[in-house]
Design brief:
Elements lengths: L8 H16 L6 H10 L4 H12 L4 E3 L11 H4 L1 H6 L2 E3 L2 E2 L1 H7 L2 H7 L11 H11 L4 E2 H4 L7 E4 L2 H12 L7 H7 L20 H21 L8 H8 L8 H20 L3 H9 L6 H11 L3 H13 L4 H17 L14 E7 L5 H5 L1 H12 L6 E3 L4 H9 L1 H4 L28 H8 L7 H12 L14 H10 L2 H13 L1 H4 L6 E5 L4 E8 L7 H12 L4 E8 H4 L18 E2 L7
Parallel strand pairs: 6-10, 9-10
Antiparallel strand pairs: 1-5, 2-5, 3-4, 6-11, 7-8, 8-9
Helix pairs in contact: 1-10, 12-13, 12-14, 14-15, 15-16, 16-17, 17-18, 21-26
Length: 588
Amino acid sequence: MQTLEDPFYYLANFEHVLEWLRARYPDLLSSDELAFIDEFLQVPRSSRALLVRMVMRKGTRFRVGKLNYPEIGPASKAVKPLVEKGWVAADPVLELAQLFSLFTKPELVKAFAGIVDRPNAAKSELFQQVGEQDAGPYRLSQWWPDAGDTVFELTIMEMSERFRLMFFGNLRQTWSEFVLADLGLYRFETVEFSPASRAFQCRGEVDEYLHLYQCREQLEAFRGQAENEPDALEQVLERIPTEASENAWLEARRARLLYQAAYHCERCGELERALELYGLCSHAEARVRRIRVLERLGDPEAALSLAREARLSPCDAAESQHIARILPRLHRKLGLPGLPRHVQAPVERVDLVLPRPVSPMDADTSVGVELAVLEYLNQSESPVWYVENTLINALFGLLCWDIIFAPVPGAFFHRFHSGPADLLRPDFVPRRAGRFEQQLALLDTGAYKNAIREKYAAKFGLQSPFVHWHGLTETLLEQALACLPAAHLRAWFERLLEDIKANRAGMPDLIRFWPAERRYQMIEVKGPGDRLQDNQLRWLAFCAEHDMPVQVCYVQWEEEAGANASPYEEPGQRSSPLKRRLPDGQTP
């Protein structure tokens, strides 16, 4: 693997972030944070490097004997200025679990030789034995006076996490982004942005983000426990803000957190609490969940009232789809007249019987079934490609590349963006509406093909929220441009822009081209026992409505299907017993 020439590359990256923050966020930094930035650059380089190494490692407690970095030298020497500044604490108090995480089992057997009666026992058993005698907490010098090592605790982790958040605008990206970019493993589009471009506009927004993040971490930890104290969940819920945030982006995060908490309550049978939390939540799926909870609580009248409200003003296509299923059931429960059934365009179904893949792993994975169908159908004159959620997104991403990466205020504020920060926000398309209209107009003239080819050549390998380069070869691109009608591309692209988050998923698995005839067919593949998901049903319905050639292929393995297996037949053949509409309940 390629290596970086400067052994202190990580220190240079961290210092770059500090300078960046001081230049762009001076009004959002506290006096202590500004003082840290100034003082950090004054301590010896080896000490600065050691601090950054600790910041970038997991946890906050470290054994000096394990901090071995050739470019830094002896950690026991480099750490002294850090202790003097208060950025690192020497010999901190350790809980028993913290002690066990820092030392190996042989070391712990030696440390507690007078307590452990079964040296060969598992580490968890040793922990139990020691804990029964004395669970602490103590300093290492008290736990094990002859340890021959020293433990240090990083005290600035909270500050460094705040710095990371302010730089990236999220806590999903880590310090490794610098390294991956410097090694060329990640390549990002260069976007011009002003010094005023930044993720947060006031310190309160940073505080709010961090609080929501901590609440989510606590909720995840609670949900991951096998047993919980009765009041533990309520303690978590009490920390989640119940009032909407003035910042739309942070409000979306709060709504998602509330939804997750409410859903957990619902699953645990805490229906009244779940109903309350759903009612405080603006998440797109919250209203449907409220309706279902009302049903479970035995209040179909209230559920029907809310469902009718949702039918009149659905927040998105997914909610409309759910309400269409719920209303007939509520009418039946309440003895009301049935609702007229919405008849949608049928989608062709094909049942295909294939030999089970040779590798058991292939048969058990979702991709295995798709590849089995691909191999069966693929022919030189009609090649088949596995393109689930990649091809249409990629064509859109290439055609609209310059719009997606346009320097819109607030969309970009550092060099590690794989897409604009506002991509999934409600105002993403409205802020660029005129540009999208102008670019999609190329589909009416035929100029779109060269525009896509040029971007493919110029941007190949750059990070993008729509283009996954590993699945887009030049051959596939050319076949797609030759066989996919511009009118179909426009329809797909416009649907993407209606709801990017929901509609860039659920597309059919395979696509089959007939280059000589300049036509195509999309194929959704379902293995034994698999069913169509809601987003897939919506895409199939959309394709059928627009007369786009699409079919659903249900696969059975030969040994399970029996002797009455019939072969796959080409589209257009008149007498196929395998081709029919999807059964009730599976019609999109």
